[in-house]
Each structure stands twice: as structure tokens, then as C-alpha cells.
Design brief:
Blueprint (H helix, E strand, L loop, with lengths): L1 H55 L5 H11 L5 E7 L7 E2 L12 H4 L4 E5 L2 E11 L9 E7 L1 H35 L2 H12 L16 H26 L4 H11 L5 E5 L5 E5 L2 E5 L4 H13 L2 E5 L14 E4 L6 E6 L3 H20 L10 H21 L6 E5 L6 H8 L4 E5 L7 H4 L5 H8 L4 E4 L2 H14 L3 E3 L4 E4 L2 E7 L10 H4 L3 H11 L7 E8 L6 H14 L7 E8 L6 H21 L7 E5 L4 H10 L2 E4 L8 H9 L6 E5 L4 H4 L4 E3 L4 H13 L2 H17 L2 H21 L12
Parallel strand pairs: 6-9, 6-12, 9-11, 12-13, 13-14, 14-17, 18-19, 18-21, 19-20, 21-22, 22-23
Antiparallel strand pairs: 1-2, 1-5, 3-4, 4-5, 7-8, 10-11, 15-16, 16-17
Helix pairs in contact: 1-4, 7-8, 7-24, 9-10, 10-11, 16-19, 17-18, 17-22
The protein binds 6-O-phosphono-beta-D-fructofuranose.
Length: about 750
Amino acid sequence: MRLSLRFIIPLLIVLAIFAYGLMPFVDKLMLSWSLRDMDSRSSIIVSSIQESVHDQLIPDSKSKMVAFFTRITQNQRLHALGYCGSQTSAMIATLTMPKSINCGNLEDYSGAEIVRTEPGKYSSFHISVRSLPTDKNPDGRLILVHDLSFNERRSEQTKRYIFYFFTGLAFVVSLITVAIAQLSWRGWVQGTRALMRGEGLFREPSTSGHSPELRPIARDLKRLIQDLESEHRTRDESQITWNAEALRTILSGELRDDDIIVVSNREPYVHEIHEGRIEVRRPASGLVTALEPIMRACSGTWIAHGSGSADRDSVDDDGFVAVPPEKPAYRLHRIWLTKEEEKGYYYGFSNEGIWPLCHIAHVRPTFRTSDWDSYVAVNRKFALAIVQQSKIKDPIVLVQDYHLSLVPRMVREKLPNATIITFWHIPWPNPESFTICPWREEIITGLLGSNILGFHTQFHCNNFLETVERLVEARVDRESFSVTLGGKQTAVHRYPISIDWPPAQELMQKPVEFCRKEVRANNNLPTDQLIGIGVDRLDYTKGIIERFNAVERLFELKPEWAGRFTFIQIAAPSRSTIHEYQSHQELVCVTAERINKRFGRPESPAILLKIKHHESQEIYEYYRAAELCFVSSLHDGMNLVAKEFVASRNDDYGVLILSQFTGAARELPEALIVNPYDADQCAAALHVALIMPQYEQRDRMRLMRGLIAEFNVYRWAGRQLLDAAAMRRRVRLFPDGTLPMGGAR
Ligand code: F6P
């Protein structure tokens, strides 16, 4: 009713102003009608008395004439009647003729409407002077004085009618307004109120109590919000200088008070017992390389498998340890697995099943039901830990990688309001390949418990959507790159992972020249030896054999390099209980040996194979000492070694040879891009790298460094968090999840 009044009162005011404004026009109109009326009456009177006046204008008949005029003026509206023979003669008139009028001043009064009847007294009359010539008085004139008070009465009456009319009109319009407001606009009011309360406006038609008129507007509004968000995000993203500080600002600004939990199989710090002492080690893992600086910036909790021999001795009673050890910035919560669980979940299902399934490296995946059972049980363990660690009902959970594909759905069941961002660090294969997995539907359904699912490349996003279309009853929207399963949407986005930029100071402390000397000296190489570097986990997907074959081919094709060039391969032991990895390690060793036999010299081996864990500082020293870095993965989600090598070269020199089958190849076209299966092409690339002029090295290196500086790991994480923040805002606005997801970039 209050809303109706808000409508009616202004309406009444407008109508009143309108009516009031109309009054002067009514007066004018009435008067002009009356005058016209009196004019015609005057004409009639003149013509009807013309004869009589002529007859009566004889001497002595003046009194007769007055009596005659008086008779005529019995008509109520004719107030007085008079006759002037000439301008100088006296007026023969009824007694009612106003005193101020005489035959000499007729011109002044003709047409006048206000007349002074007596000194100081004015009345409303209309004076009409008509010519009435006779033989005797050719200038004779008849003066007709009409009473105008009837006009005033008429005008008053009309005004009253107008007032009644507008009052009636206002009443009817108000009535209609109230009726419409009550019947039709109730929905609008409810909808708007719901929107204001943040309860969501856009329910499904079946469950909606909202007005259908709102739906098209709702759709437009959704699109508008979506466009604004995406524009806002893109603009913001490119305007931000991405670093730890920027990430902290996003967290404190966009995700204030929100709880961030990262969960991965691999932990960022491993405590190992070495020679009777506890040592802390940073594992060789792209995932750790990327996420560790993020967690330093964001704080929060990182939940991971405690796999180190001294891990249990390094945590508090609840399984927590503050890390990094030298300057704690976040909490690491370790999950304990039994040997059987680790065997089935990590070595078995994750690394004998999914890993080869997703990498086209021609190693057959092995799927065992017992491994699957462990995988499910361990995923549940991780999910439970997340739920227990969450301080709020809607935390932001960052789930990492293929070890934990069931976690998103498991967490969603317990924390329906959590924002779950899952990042798949390895490639996603085509649907045919993925169909090999006996638990394919479970894995996809598990992942679709996420709000956002991230891959390194658009190609992997496309593969995932095709797999979903093929295997699951879900709606795939290729325009917005989202999947809807059971009414819940998952946005499938590309977030190319990257590295910390600029690299930590301690990694870059030693000057390039110093690194060159030290690496050569430590490896007993000639001081002018040219060096190529490879850094990998000892994994068959990394193409280490193919790399060695390329080195061999270089020496075959360009024997002048023998004795002048050594390829140093740093290989971190990995997953070594798996048979495939053991035989791969053997093959790597045998191949290196064979090539060394053919082309190595005592002081200058062709290949220097270093199977051992190296800390980041040592690795960066090798990067900075080398002429080239060779990344020859047979299939790789991104490969951060390529980016690390570029980051390490603040001298702008060094050549990167990069497999076309890495995600990094899409971002770093200035590298020498090769097919690792093509030994001749790779050998040619090695040769080109070794003879590349310095200016060309510098130009290529600067371009690559520019890209990594701009698209560093803070941007990778920041984009996910910005998307999560936008999603949380949207969920608050549209809790039923009907809003289409933002488009993939
Ligand atoms: O980068 C891919 C990846 O599988 C990571 O997820 C993992 O941490 C890393 O390689 C090393 O593997 P692992 O954790 O089995 O040693």
C-alpha cells in the first residue's frame, strides 16, 4: 500500500496542477463564447428595433422612447439601452445606463467589459455600440449594455465541473494503479527485496514465486554481470604487477576473511633422517615449485601426505608443522598413510594407472581394483582432513592433481558452500584414451564436484569437455566452457602454470661467470667446455632417452663437438618402486654409458648423468653455467624446468631447446622447438644452439623472460583466486546457481 501511495500522491499532485492551470483558459473561453453570444444578440436587437426607433424619433417622443427601451431591457441580460443622435446630443437611455457613458465618449467604451457605474464603483458589463442611422440623424448610434455577471456564474459553474471531473479521474486512475500494484507488481517487489537480501532472484520457473515478467530482465542482468566481471577481471589482471604482494592484496581485498586450504599429495617440505640427523628437503616437483611461493604469500593451510622418514618427528600432536623452516609463513598439515595405502593409492592407481593414461608416452596403464580401493580410501582421508581443518562453512579449497580426483565431490558433500578449485597438473588425454580407465565415470564425477577445474592448456580443457560429453550425463556448454552435472556448474578454465618471478635472491646470488667456472671445476671439465643441461625427475615421460639419442646424433653428424661439449643430466630419483621406473632408470644409465663409450673422452664425457636429488640452489647454478638447456618431454602438462632455465638467465644468454609436446612450447615460441622423437632434428637444434650468435640468444631470451615475468606463478594463482572471488560474489547473488559461468579465457 505504501508503494501504491508513492504512486498515487504524485499522480494527484500532477492532476491538481493540471486542473489549476486549466482555469484561466476556462475563463477566457467562457468569456469569448459569451461575447460572441452577446454580439449576435445585439445584432438581433438592433435590427428588431430599427423601425421603432425611427418612428419614435419625433419631437416630444423622448419619454416614449425611454419607456420603449426600458421594456426591451426587461430581458435580464440586457442591462441598459441608449441612443445618441450625434456626438454632441444628449443620450436617450434607460435609467440603468452607467453614468460615466455619454454620447461624447462612446468610442472609449465600445467593447469595454468593466465599466464605472458611479464614481468609484465598477461593474462587469459589456458595452456594444452599433450604428443606427436615420434620416434625421445619419450618425445615430445605439448603445447596448449587457450584464456580464451571468458569464461569471457560468465560469464558476464550469470550474466546478472541471474540479469534479479531475477528482473523479484521479480516483479512477488511483484505483487502477492500486489494483495493478497489488496484483502484478507484487512479484517485482518480492523479487527486488529478495535480491536486496542477497537471497537470489532467479529461481527455476517451477520453484519460483517470482513474476514471469522478471525472467527476461533476469537473463539480461545475468549476462551483464557476467560481462562486467569478465571485463573487470581481464582489465584488472593486465593492470596488476603480479607478485607476492599483489596476491596478498587480492586475498585481503577480494577474499577477506576467507579460509584457504591447499591440498596435494606431495608436500612442500620433506623431513628426512640423513646420517643420524633430520634434514629438510624440497622435493623435485613442478607442483611444489609453483605452489610454495603462493602459500608463502597467502598463509593458510597446506594438507599433504607426510612421506619423509622424519616427518612424524617434526610435527606437533595434530600433525602440523610451520613452514618454511627458516621463516614460517603457513601451516603444513601432514596426512599419514600406511605402506599399503601408499602402494595402492600413490604407486598403483595414481602412477601406474592415471599417470601413463594421461601421458602419451607409450607406457601401458595398469588398473587394479585393490589400487582403486586404496585410492578411494585415501581420497576420503584427504577430504575428511579438509573438512576438519576448515574454520568456516565456505572455505576456498585448492585441490591439486590427479592423486585427488575424488576429493572435490567428497568435500562438496560435506561443505556444500565451499569454493573448490581443482588444478590438473598433467595433460588430459582424448576421450578414447581416457575410456581405458575402468573408473572413468567416478573420476569425472569426482572432479565435477569442483567449482573451477583448471588445466594448463586450452587443448586439455577441450579434451576434458569431450570426455565428459562422451562418458557422463552432463550438460556441456562450449560457449562458457562449463559443465553442469546434477544442477551444479563447473567452470573449465585454462590457467598456464608458471614460476616465481623474479626468482628468489638466494638462487641468483652467484654471478653467471662464477657458476660457469664452479660447475666445470666441480665436474672436472675443461674450463672452456660447452655445457648442455637437462633437469628432470627420472620419469619416462621426460624423454631423457630421446635426449641422449639426440646428443649421440649430434656427435655423429658433427664430430667436431666431441671433446668440446658435455651434456649434464640431473635426474631426481622418482617413484622408484614402480617397475616401469626402475627399468627406465636402467635404460637411461645404459644409454648414457653407451654414448660415452662412443664419443666421450676422459676429461670430457659426452653425457654426465647425475642421478641424485639436487636442491634448487645447485640446479640454478647449473642453469646459469650452461650454454643450453634441453627439455625433451614426450608429453608434459607444462614443464617448469623450461621456465626456470629462462628465469635463471638474467644475463640474457643461453639457448632453450624445447619439446613441442610440452605446455610450455605454446608460451615460449622463441625457444628452439623440436620433436623429441626426431633425433636428427634435435641434433640439429643442439648444433644451432651451440653456434647461435650472442645477439640472437639475447633477443630470444629477452622475449621469453618478458613473458614469464608477466605470466608468473602469482598470476596463475591470482587468476584462480579472482575467479573464485567472482564466483563467490555470484553465488551470494544467485544461490540457486542458475547464472551461467564466466567464459573461458
Ligand atoms: O607436475 C606433475 C607432477 O605429477 C606433480 O603433480 C608431482 O608433484 C610431480 O609431478 C612429481 O611427482 P611425485 O609427486 O610423484 O614425485
